[in-house]
Amino acid sequence: DAGITQSPRHKVTETGTPVTLRCHQTENHRYMYWYRQDPGHGLRLIHYSYGVKDTDKGEVSDGYSVSRSKTEDFLLTLESATSSQTSVYFCAISESRRAESYEQYFGPGTRLTVT
Amino acid sequence: GDSVTQMEGPVTLSEEAFLTINCTYTATGYPSLFWYVQYPGEGLQLLLKATKADDKGSNKGFEATYRKETTSFHLEKGSVQVSDSAVYFCALSGDYRGSQGNLIFGKGTKLSVKP
């Protein structure tokens, strides 16, 4: 198994509070991704990173920010959580983005409930 | 934009039955295609992939062939087991600048296999 951990694994928070989710990898992979998984939507990309301090937006980035100050850590922040952000959040990593060698490895997920 | 459509579930089969999960895609150029599997309470795992037309991906008895003429990548297994019960996701990665490496997922198909 790829060395990816996510913390916390479960969190309940109130509307309007800030929340930070952490993804930590031990594989030294360059690329990291944050997805959310919702019933009827599959997984949707929130943000991704292609190196330390280099990030870009995905399909559903509104209301989220990210930071990557070290290769191994990728943080996802909800500045002011809303009920629509209740979801399961997955982190993923990849060594390459070239098709012939491409694979994303996923973490175990964080279940976030915003009340 | 690029998109993936897969058959809606849930799919319920008896052990040793034949499995087909349909997946079609819309994409610019020549995307790479993937099947991921998610077991209960876990993150996603890559099951198989194909990076060019007519490629066949295979793993653990599952197969899928990249059909450009029908823009399809259907997942098949000749004899399912109870342990195959999971949610299966079809995904693509675009081949144009800026899209490479970002996965676009279908909504997922839940498979339940009964003894």
Structural overview:
The complex is a heterodimer of chains A (115) and B (115). By secondary structure, chain A is mainly beta. In chain A, 0% of the residues lie in helices and 57% in strands. In chain A, strand 7 (64-70) and strand 8 (73-78) form a beta hairpin. Chain A starts with a strand and ends with a strand. The model of chain A has no long low-confidence stretch (mean pLDDT 92). With 115 residues, chain B is mainly β. In chain B, 0% of the residues lie in helices and 50% in strands. In chain B, strand 5 (32-38) and strand 6 (44-50) form a beta hairpin. Chain B is globular and about 45 Å long. Chain B starts with a strand and ends with a strand. The model of chain B has no long low-confidence stretch (mean pLDDT 91). Chains A and B meet through strand 5, strand 9 and strand 10 of A and strand 6 and strand 11 of B.
